[in-house]
Specification:
Blueprint lengths: L1 E2 L2 H13 L5 H20 L6 E6 L3 H15 L3 E6 L8 H12 L3 E4 L3 H12 L3 E5 L11 H12 L3 E5 L21 E5 L4 H4 L9 E5 L5 H4 L6 E4 L1 H5 L16 E5 L6 H13 L4 E7 L3 H7 L4 E5 L1 E3 L2 E2 L4 H9 L3 E4 L7 H13 L4 E3 L2 H4 L16 E2 L3 H8 L3 H6 L1 H12 L2 E4 L5 E3 L5 E4 L11 H14 L4 H20 L8 H17 L2
Parallel strand pairs: 2-3, 2-5, 3-4, 5-6, 6-7, 7-8, 9-20, 10-11, 10-15, 11-12, 15-16, 16-17, 17-18
Antiparallel strand pairs: 1-9, 13-14, 18-19, 19-20
Helix pairs in contact: 2-3, 3-4, 10-18, 10-20, 18-19, 18-20, 19-20
């Protein structure tokens, strides 16, 4: 499914009006009808239901006036609270305001403190609050009077339904500068906006409905829109079923270069995840002093000792053997728990520029790229990087907080500049490609906030590349399956989930996707 920025949605609406000849007031009418219909589905019979519609002076308020009219016609007792003056309402919104005025629907302009007292009383005795204050028209920080109404709405413990975007949520980034409406349901139009899917905004959306308001199909499927939501249907088309005559040699060979003293768990998790995602064979390259430990730790995974510069740390002398082993593999993982010895970091940079196999780069291998990201353009194939916000921050010279404030933009720009596939992990993982295309993951849960979960993701992606998926497909399928496996584990509770639980759930996650075919 395509996902839009606020500017792209405005362009779509403009094209619908100017190029297709659909009057703006028709789009507003369709939006209001859809919201009113959803409210009826949520509340049941609307007869005598008390509903307060909070409207701004712009087009989002216009949608609210249409909602009020249709709820009134269904027998609801509707009050409209216009936050501002009627004189500020223009265009299609004004037409709909005049209609509900003529219908005798109760409208109160909220301007002074006396008006606010009436609002608070009405909220107390209402069944449902409708947020039609700002929609996508909001950016920055709410003004004081809007803060007041939002805080009042949130305190009332009533069902809140947001029209298009909850007030206070940035439609592009999901950021909240002061406060935001905490909706139980959000009905957005034509396509989901980025900010509805990204945190913290996603916490304020409640259940999200995407309503068809009659925008021509070609506009909402425009290939120029480069944001997408990864869904199960997308992944089903990528993961084929295994052939009856398959053997381990035909199911992919993964080479994992990982681990150091105190960090062997990361190596084990990544290698085991590659096995559980379906790879035929996995070979773990590990510092020679750790080799015997790993032979006992990972039963199904082969292990290869590599030369070390100090106990547990790979050195430059390991490169020739590492290169030889890579030639017998379909994909190479480098980084999980690898350590940050200076010579190890030098080895990583050499691997990135010389190994002639697809690369999945994670953890300490990302640390080796600080101030060296230009080396990524020298890789023999498009590399896949899997940073968490802290790792991404170090690579781009920002803080983790700054990265999370605009996850899509920063990930996209990095992918373009580095000629790489970038997977920015976290709640709503973002996958970006060198052509600017971006995907937001829809699977996963908070229980996956546990050490080692990222190492598991790296292994899954490598396992899929080994089985013949393109790096593009493996990145998307890997992220979704990783989250889906976490969702399967979470059926028994999120608290206490560990990374190895996710690995164990991988076969069920993959099977579930394949059965959708």
């Amino acid at each position: 499914m395509k996902v839009v920025t606020v500017a792209e949605m405005k362009d779509i609406e403009r094209a619908a009006i100017e190029e297709y000849g659909i009057p703006g007031i028709v789009l507003m009418e369709n939006a209001g009808v859809e919201v009113a219909g959803q409210i009826e589905s949520i509340l049941g019979n609307l007869h005598n239901k008390k509903i307060s519609v909070f409207a701004g002076t712009g087009n989002n308020g216009g949608d609210g006036y249409v909602v009020a009219r249709h709820l009134h016609n269904q027998g609801a007792k509707v009050k409209v609270f216009l936050i501002g003056s009627k004189t500020a309402v223009v265009g299609d919104a004004l037409t709909n305001l005049q209609i509900i005025t003529n219908m005798g629907i109760d409208i109160l302009e909220v301007i002074n403190q006396h008006d606010w007292d009436k609002v608070k009383i009405a909220m107390t005795f209402t069944d449902c609050l409708v947020d039609a204050l700002l929609g996508t028209g909001f950016t920055g920080k709410l003004r004081d009077h809007m803060v007041q109404v939002v805080e009042c709405m949130n305190k009332m413990n009533k069902v809140i339904i947001a029209v298009d975007v909850p007030t206070g949520v940035d439609g592009d980034t999901g950021q909240i500068q002061s406060v935001a409406v905490k909706a139980n349901y959000t009905i957005t139009f034509a396509l989901p906006k980025q900010g509805l899917l990204l945190y913290p905004g996603a916490l304020y959306v409640g259940e999200l409905y995407v309503a068809d308001i009659g925008v021509p199909r070609l506009l909402v499927q425009n290939i120029a829109i480069q944001q997408n939501l990864i869904t199960s249907g997308d992944v089903t088309n990528m993961l084929g079923k295994r052939q009856p005559d398959a053997h381990k040699g035909s199911c992919g060979k993964v080479f994992v270069v990982a681990g150091s003293r105190g960090l062997t768990g990361a190596a084990a998790l990544s290698a085991s995840a590659a096995m559980r995602s379906g790879a035929g064979t996995v070979n773990l390259g590990i510092a020679e002093s750790l080799h015997d430990i790993m032979e006992m730790k990972v039963t199904e995974v082969m292990t290869s000792p590599l030369a070390e510069v100090s106990p547990g740390a790979l050195g430059e002398e390991s490169f020739s053997e590492l290169q030889r082993l890579s030639l017998h593999s379909d994909v190479v993982v480098i980084g999980p728990g690898l350590g940050r010895h200076e010579e190890t970091m030098s080895l990583v940079r050499r691997v990135i520029t010389t190994i002639e196999r697809p690369l999945v780069i994670d953890a300490d291998a990302l640390y080796a790229l600080i101030d060296h990201t230009s080396l990524l353009t020298e890789a023999k194939s498009v590399p896949i990087l899997t940073p968490h916000p802290g790792e991404m921050a170090r690579l781009v010279g920002l803080t983790a907080e700054e990265v999370n404030q605009d996850r899509i933009y920063i990930t996209r720009q990095a992918a373009i500049e580095w000629g790489s596939i970038i997977i920015l992990k976290g709640a709503r993982t973002v996958v970006a490609f060198p052509d600017g295309e971006v995907y937001i993951n829809s699977s996963g849960n908070a229980g996956m906030a546990t050490g080692g979960a990222g190492d598991v993701l790296t292994g899954i992606i490598a396992g899929f590349v080994g089985q013949g998926l393109s790096s593009h497909e493996a990145a998307l399928a890997g992220v979704y399956i990783h989250g889906l496996a976490g969702d399967i584990v979470a059926r028994n509770g999120m608290i206490g989930m560990i990374a190895s639980d996710i690995i164990k759930a991988l076969p069920a996650a993959i099977f579930g996707i394949q059965e959708n075919d």
